[in-house]
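[Discussion] Sanity-checking designs against the backbone

I'm trying to build intuition for which residues belong where. Below is a structure token string of 409 positions. I'd appreciate it if someone posts a full sequence so I can compare it with mine line by line.
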């Protein structure tokens, strides 16, 4: 029985990778909820771990959750995009082992000996490199002449690896610049680009399957503009020129708004599974507009309004919603189920937008400081209240047979 379950669970990369990603979705917020409770209440003290909270939370959110979903998705779709054979188990299982066991050792090291944090990260990076090698093997050997999206994705996945490696270097004693680079690279050179590229490739395609008539809009200038803008954002941030960030950020806002309009945002809202992706993209536009406005306010007044609100609009509203939307679609389709979102799943997705709003409210400058802690805790509770049942509902689909009786992943 165990062998049969394993064979089913390991039948496709997305099955293997999505499950630890789902578990991470819960673990990182459970940890953060415990940490926030310790900070803002008298129930207990903040956690004393081998990695300080200011560094642990961003690392887990940037590198501990989303790579599982991204590699699961891309290892499944790369062969389809480039008209070649599927990636064999011998390539994606070792990547899963490295990433999953690496994160397990990382968690053990937080509560025991710091060396386990280091060893866990080394194994995690080895799994990431193995996954990159599996994607590269498909890329290099595929017959498809057009590898535009895959070329960009390969580049930003490497940037993500470099960002995680820089965080490890900082823990080993490298200058604090390595830590700063790790945060910027993970967010602006890895997560944002991966999702923009995937959205550019898939949202128009998914929309064309539902919205009729529909014109595919996938301009070739979008991704180069995105690459220049995110690179500019990182360079300006790392050199301390925050007041000039609006140049890069408004360029990304223009890109997001242009595509939202031409991709049919309003029409897509009538179809829930499609609407999730369009809503996530709308949060991308909102986050970049807020980033740009924040930079202009800094330039004209010298004040840093909104604190981390723009970043959380992107992290919760765009990155998390888009990732879960894509994961839901892949899980439903590859388990033989209809590509339809029921009321329960729709509520889970809407809760992410609610959590985004409460987290942003905690950073608005006109709100009394006493509300910051309760709003942060509310955000974590909303996440757990709705993402936990989402994980419990979709997780078992990853190790169970297809419901339509077909064989395969």
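Best answer:
Here's mine. Compare freely.
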């Amino acid at each position: 029985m165990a062998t049969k379950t394993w064979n089913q669970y390991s039948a496709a990369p997305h099955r293997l990778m999505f499950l630890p990603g789902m578990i991470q979705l819960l673990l990182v917020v459970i940890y953060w909820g415990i940490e926030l409770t310790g900070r803002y209440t008298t129930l207990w003290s903040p956690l004393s771990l081998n990695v300080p909270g200011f560094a642990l939370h961003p690392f887990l959110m940037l590198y501990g959750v989303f790579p599982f979903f991204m590699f699961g998705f891309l290892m499944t779709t790369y062969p389809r995009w480039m008209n070649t054979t599927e990636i064999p188990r011998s390539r994606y299982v070792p990547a899963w082992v490295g990433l999953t066991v690496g994160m397990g050792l990382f968690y053990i090291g937080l509560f025991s000996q710091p060396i386990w944090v280091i060893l866990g990260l080394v194994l995690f990076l080895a799994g990431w490199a193995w996954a990159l090698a599996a994607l590269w093997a498909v890329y290099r050997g595929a017959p498809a002449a057009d590898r535009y999206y895959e070329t960009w994705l390969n580049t930003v996945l490497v940037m993500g690896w470099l960002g995680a490696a820089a965080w490890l270097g900082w823990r080993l004693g490298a200058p604090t610049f390595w830590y700063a680079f790790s945060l910027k690279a993970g967010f602006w050179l890895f997560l944002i680009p991966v999702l923009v590229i995937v959205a550019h490739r898939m949202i128009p395609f998914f929309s064309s399957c539902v919205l009729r008539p529909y014109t595919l809009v996938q301009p070739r200038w979008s991704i180069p503009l995105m690459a220049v803008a995110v690179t500019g954002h990182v360079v300006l941030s790392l050199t301390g020129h925050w007041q000039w960030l609006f140049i890069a950020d408004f360029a990304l806002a223009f890109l997001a708004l242009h595509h939202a309009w031409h991709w049919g945002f309003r029409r897509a809202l009538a179809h829930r599974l499609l609407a999730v992706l369009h809503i996530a993209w709308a949060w991308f536009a909102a986050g970049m507009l807020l980033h740009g406005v924040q930079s202009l306010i800094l330039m004209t007044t010298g004040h840093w309004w909104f604190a981390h609100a723009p970043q959380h609009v992107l992290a919760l509203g765009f990155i998390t919603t888009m990732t879960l939307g894509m994961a839901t679609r892949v899980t439903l389709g590859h388990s033989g189920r209809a590509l339809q979102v029921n009321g329960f799943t729709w509520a889970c997705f809407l809760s992410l937008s609610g959590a985004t709003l409460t987290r942003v409210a905690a950073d608005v400058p006109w709100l009394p400081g006493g509300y910051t802690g309760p709003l942060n805790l509310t955000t974590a509770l909303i996440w757990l209240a709705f993402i936990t049942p989402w994980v419990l509902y979709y997780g078992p689909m990853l190790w169970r047979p297809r419901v339509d009786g077909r064989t395969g992943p």
